Amino acid sequence: MVNPEPAARRALPSVDRLLSSTAFSAFISRYGRALTTETIRELLQVQREKLAQNASAFDFDEGHFVAACDAALTKYTQPSLRPVFNLTGTVLHTNLGRALMPQSVADAVMTAMTRPVNLEFDLGGGARGERDTHVEKWITKLAGGEGAVVVNNNAAAVYLVLNTLGAQRTKREVIVSRGELIEIGGAFRIPDIMKRAGVKLVEVGTTNRTHLKDFAEAITPHTAAIMKVHTSNYVVQGFTASAPEAELAALAHEHGIPYIVDLGSGMLVNLEDYGLPHEPTPREALANGADLVTFSGDKLLGGPQAGLLVGKKDLIARIRKNPMKRALRVDKMTLAALDALLRLYTNPDKLREEVTTIRLLTRTRADIRVQAERVLPHVQNAVAGKGEARIVETGSQIGSGSLPVDSLPSAGIAISPIGKSKSSFADKLSLAFRALPVPVIGHIKDGAFVLDIRCLEHEAEFITQLTQLQFK
Fold it and tell me: Buried b vs exposed e over 415-452: b needs ≥16 C-beta within 10 Å?
């Protein structure tokens, strides 16, 4: 009996012959010779394995092979970081990139990316400059304080402050209320960051009640600072007590030690003026006597990922001299974004119009419902025969650890299975929406797949791609 495998193997084209073909010449032009060659070899190996399993039934189809290579190259070279529709109901979604940049901020970043800029060059004196000066004037103007430093996120800002204050060998203790030993996303814990920064945590009080006397009794010759941490991602309610900030600051200054405040999220304006819950601002903390305040750039502020430090000039100068400042510094794109964003904050009357985060947070349920009604028929058509779509009232979250117990009245579209409840319906539908050209991220509640419309900015694009939804 003749073995069909050798003949089938001879039917497989060589790598060189494929590379010289018209189809693969186009792939080489688009993807490069190295990647195209690697893909051909990988898929030819798949063909050899099929041949070895059943040589008699093996039939090499070059057209299908070209299509398979095209699909593999397209998938492999697709950007990993892709736009998505955030319809989760969480405005500042950490997993989806947090704050969206206003167009003017994006334009400033593009200029910094594509042109030489005076990042560390003093145009007046013609000598080397300090990169933080590009935003320092705006931070101090808007937040108060005598000086400012920018690093890559608020965790880095807290670390840098503690590491700088802990540089004194005889004074490394930092006093914090036990109820403020927070943990945020990624298992970032205040006690851990303090240990890494080289300071010793001295926790005082209890989880729910800490008094001024607790801090006073903990001060020793080894105390480097008193620290207050804003519990932005949780709330302790009921039988509680905390020491007033102004009194904490006075106590620290009485003993010649700095009082520092970590605001976590942080905001430069009073959110109550925009119909939102109050969030402590750096200006308030400084007015209460804080010597240093740290907060984030990419949360409520609505800018790029950054950690902002503002406060006393002498402490800012010490922080700048810390060798770790260089390791944690930001690049020109972040500074360009911050500069453009902070300039928008000089005109609070236009923040709703100019700052994307403020606009999304302040949308009314009535406005969102009107948009949901426009979108609903298109969603109904996309899931016809498989699911039932209806408008529902929802509650959006601010996100990123900001105002965790506050809900923003919103509206959305809930898609439920037709007929008897199917436990896997919402999971499968969620997957189908994520498989769209621009993935749609919603959330599952009570067996339904829910799209919160608060953050739907590109409505036409969303509607157009619904015709491509594949759901069985």
Answer: bbbeeeeeeebbebbbebbeebeeebbbbeeeebbbbb
**Sequence letter at residue 128:** R
pLDDT bracket for residue 108 (50, 70, 90)? very high
Residue 84 · residue 440 · CB < 8 Å: yes
Spatial separation of the C-alpha atoms in residues 143 and 149, rounded to whole Å: 12
Q: Could you read off the pLDDT of 172-203 as tens digits, one per residue?
A: 999 999 888 877 666 678 888 888 999 999 99
d(CA 445, CA 455): 18
DSSP 14: P
Dihedral angle over CA of 156, 159, 161, 165, nearest 10: -160
Beta strands in 272-418 (DSSP E): 292-296, 307-311, 387-396, 408-417
Longest dimension (CA), the chain: 100
Domain annotation for the chain: domains and CATH numbers: 5-77 (no CATH), 85-93+361-468 (3.90.1150.110), 103-354 (3.40.640.10)
CA distance 424 to 416: 11
- DSSP string across 402-417: BSTT--EEEEEEEEEE
Can you tell me whether residue 250 is helix, strand or coil?
helix
